[in-house]
Specification:
The chain is of the alpha/beta class. It is 32% helix and 21% strand. It has two domains: 148 residues, Cytidine Deaminase, domain 2 (3-Layer(aba) Sandwich); 189 residues, Dihydrofolate Reductase, subunit A (3-Layer(aba) Sandwich), CATH 3.40.430. The chain is built from eleven helices and 15 strands. Helix 1 runs parallel beside helix 5. The longest helix has 17 residues.
């Protein structure tokens, strides 16, 4: 059972993982989650470590190297430990070697074929395992939604940014539930809009260029950028990828699948209504994000959604059902992030 102390320490563990998360440093990075481990003896934090994609050892093994002993300690994990050999050895074996008798897990493994196995293995070892509930459990589950979609559906999360002007687009947050800019990997824009926006932090700029307006990455305002153009080009350039057309756009489903293969888990797009309408109509959108300053701003967001006039079962009803919650969440004085989530 979760205690108040468990909630505080798991929240700190989650914050460490969230702060450490970064977009891929290179194209083709492994599809792996960022997760953290915290070892505590009552209220004292003994050690904490974060595992990033591609790291040479898991976070629990890193803790074991630093910790003097684990007697009487509880181990907090943002993510259920792996129980099989993958790129690294099973994390469950690292936990057994550490010697803790109690583990608090923030979220089950979102990979459907192995969900729950790590917890079951720990219990076979005689370890007490507590699965988080409440707000702490929700935060950890949301944190791994993009990884879940990348693994289970081979697509990154796509969130539409319903900003009301360019300045808001530049200041836009990057993820769900109030997470910071480090939680999105790429900013997806259409054509020459790429010259007016910049991704935050180390995120990549991804340009849909159906009209062949760019011929070199040096034309773009950031170094980490890639461009998608229609098939049939004779010249192959670094950072340029070819996909088929679909109507007036490039095939967005193939673009997203290619982004996932390149290591991107989360994509945000501030593109215009035509791109939004196409993306929503193709059932590729996971959420619509908005940065607003007041209840009036929330109303403008909802009216902008209505202007999209997307034909799709359940879209209007979802907006209508969620709009009262959206308005109630607004603070008249603070810039906040609101989100309308779409259940695909």
């Amino acid at each position: 059972m979760m205690q108040d102390l468990d909630r505080r320490l798991l929240r700190r563990c989650y914050e460490e993982a969230r702060a450490a998360r970064r977009p891929p440093a290179r194209l083709g990075a492994p599809i792996e989650p960022t997760w953290s481990a915290l070892l505590a003896r009552e209220e004292e934090t003994v050690s904490i470590a974060v595992q990033l994609p591609g790291d040479a050892e898991d976070a629990v093994r890193a803790i074991q190297k630093k910790a003097v002993g684990a007697d009487g300690c509880t181990l907090y994990l943002t993510l259920e430990p792996s129980s099989t050999y993958q790129r690294l050895a099973p994390v469950t074996e690292s936990i057994r070697a550490l010697g803790v008798r109690r583990v608090v897990v923030g979220s089950e493994n979102p990979v459907l074929r192995v969900r729950g196995r790590g917890i079951a293995v720990l219990r076979q070892f005689g370890v007490e395992v507590v699965l988080a509930d409440g707000e702490e459990g929700r935060l950890c589950q949301v944190f791994y939604e993009d990884f879940a979609k990348a693994v289970n559906r081979s697509l990154p999360m796509l969130r539409l940014l319903l900003s009301l002007d360019v300045e808001q687009a530049r200041a836009a947050p990057g993820g769900a539930g109030g997470t910071d800019a480090a939680t999105y990997d790429a900013l997806l824009v259409h054509g020459r809009e790429a010259l007016a926006v910049r991704p935050r932090g180390d995120a990549w700029l991804v340009v849909l260029d159906p009209d062949l307006e760019f011929h070199s990455l040096s034309q773009l305002p950031v170094r980490n950028a890639i461009v998608f153009q229609p098939e049939g080009q004779d010249v192959v350039r670094d950072g340029f990828f070819m996909v088929p057309r679909r109507d007036l756009f490039l095939d967005l489903a193939l673009v997203l699948r290619r982004l996932r293969d390149l290591g991107f888990l989360s994509v945000v797009s501030p593109g215009g209504q035509a791109l939004f309408r196409y993306a929503i109509g193709a059932d590729l959108v996971d959420a619509a994000l908005s940065v607003v300053q007041s209840r009036e701003g929330a109303a403008l967001t909802l009216s902008k959604l209505a202007q999209l006039e997307v034909q799709g079962e359940g879209w209007e009803s979802r907006v209508r059902l969620l709009s009262p919650r959206l308005v109630r969440a607004m603070d008249d004085d603070l810039m906040v992030e609101s989100e309308i989530r779409l259940q695909n």
